[in-house]
Every structure is written in structure tokens, then in C-alpha cells.
Amino acid sequence: xxxxxVVNLIKAHxxxxxxxxxxxxNRIASEFNEMGDSELAAYITAQxxxxxxxxxxxxxxxxxxxxxxxxDNTSLPLPSVIxxxxxxxxxxxxxKMGIGRFLFEGAPGTGKTESAKQVARLLNxxxxxxxxxxxxxxKLGQTAKNIALVFDEINHMPNLSRVVILFDEIDSLALDxxxxxxxxEMGRATSSVLKELDNVNPEAIIIATTxxxxxxxxxxxxxxxxxxxxxxxxxxxxxxxxxxxxxxxLSKFPGAGRDIKLFRKILxxxxxxxxxxxxKNIIKVSLAFSDPQNPYDYLAxxxxxxxxxxxxxxxxxxxxxxxxxEISILTNIPKSTVSRELKEK
Length: 345
Prior knowledge:
By secondary structure, the protein is an alpha/beta fold. It has three domains: about 5-55, no CATH class; about 65-230, 3-Layer(aba) Sandwich (Rossmann fold), CATH 3.40.50; about 235-345, no CATH class. It is built from 16 helices and six strands. β4 (about 165), α8 (about 185-200) and β5 form a beta-alpha-beta unit. The longest helix is centred in the N-terminal third of the chain and has 17 residues, at about 20-35.
């Protein structure tokens, strides 16, 4: 492979010159094949036959109702059952069998929106989210018209094969049309969404999220190829997720002590473990507010927040199964003092 090919390949990538990129890649693949590395040659050829070869983040999308979402490389801890479903989504899209509409449903904080970001990142696509503040309008009939304009932007979007469209909390537009408590205007909006989904460009990949799956119009649910339930965390799943979050956050606090066993025990003794979104916030705040002179202060704060208490009573901690050593860490009281006071009580 010549140095000139590498330079030209990089230039083609940054200039979004897809044809030039493919031509150079084909030439490189041929050279590897002639050198006897047929496997690498086949891999390169397979990659450039995918329309998503050029990184799409360099593409700019100027639309009225769609906003680009920033993607990052942070890990997303998920239960295996949900992670397997996300892998299935990626496989379905790559197989190009006309399956491209997915509904993520579940309680707040279960990772629906973050999962949509990860799907877009793994597919090497831009994620565009619908700005409902611009769609929903108080004027009679205007919301339905705006919905039509949203889908018109989607259907006529250049490089549609390089994006994922996100309707985050789509229940704002698709509540049950038969619900008497729902205003008639939103019923019209729901009907408009149904109509547009039926006629959406088949190349469009759409992910919608909702916290109110049971309230969605049944006809709306049927418009999606697959519904992914995010309410499938066992207690052990939540503990594993919390540990992953803690390990990532601890890297920013070199002075903090590590006692993963005690951290997991705090979670196990909790009456109800929060969803990942809330866990992430509790862990972050506990570390942020912790005393830099006490390396384990964040664990005490985490326990208090998780159990909604302001005090760490020695007898209460003992009744929950914490050892003398663990109580000493949580209360910052010497073990000998903890042992003596518990005996006195």
C-alpha cells in the first residue's frame, strides 16, 4: 500500500467524496489480495460495499424540526436481555429487510434514550431528534400540519441512509385517541402521526421512546416493527449497573477509597433499588459532595440518599447485617468504639 493512497483516502473521507473513497479502497484491497492476504482484502471489500463506510458525523443537517444529538463513546451498562435486543436491532438494520421502526418503552431512567444514542453510534450514523417544542402548537390544527412537515423533512432528507431519527417521549403526540381526558387537538395529532408512519420513506430508521406505553393508541403501537421493553432489570442487574457507573465515576476521584463489596451490600440492603438513571445521579452527587479528607464519605452519603435518612445509627446498621468494619467505614468511627457502643446498647 502506497503512502499516496493513504493520504488520498483521508482526503476523500474529509471531503465526503464517496466515489473516490471507494475507488482507493478497492485499489488497496486488490494490493492486499495480490500480496496473499485475501482475508483482509475481503474485509475491506465488504466494508466499502456498505453505504455507511464514510463517517456520517461530518454531514450537516439543516432542518427546522430535527436537531442533531451529540454522541459519545461512554459505555452503557444494560441487562443481557435488553443488550441482546439492541444487537438484534442493529442486525435487522444491516440486513436491510425493511425493518426500521422501533419503540423503546419503560419507566423513566431505564436507558431508553441512551440506548438510541448507542444504536446510532454502533451503526455509525447521525442521530437526529424531533424538537417537539416546535411541533406542538396551540393553534387549532397546526400541530397536525407540523407533524406532516416533520415527516416531509425526513422523507426528502439527503443521506437518509446515514441517520437515525429519534422521537423521544413520543407519547406527547400519540396518546390514545379514545381517551376522553385527551383534548381533541391531540387526537388529530395522533391520527396524523399514524398516517405519516404508514407513508414514511422505507430507508428511514426511526426509534421512538415512551414512558406511557399503556396509554398509547393501539393502532400507534402496531406501526412499529419491534417494541423493546426496558423494564427488565432484576435487582442483580441494577447492582451490576450501579457498580459499572461507580467504577467509571471513581476514575475522576483519585482520592476516593474503593470498597465495591460494601457498595454492593448497601444496594442489597436497600428496600428498593432505583432505576439506572436515578442511580447514576445518586452516585454522582454522593461523590461530588463527599469530604476529601474522608475517602469513604461518598459511601455514607450514598447509603443515606438510597435509604432516605439523615442519620447512621449503629444499631440500625447492625440489624441490616453490616459488620463492625463496614459500620466503621460508613460512620467514620473507630472499630473499637463501634464495638463498645453496640455492646452497651
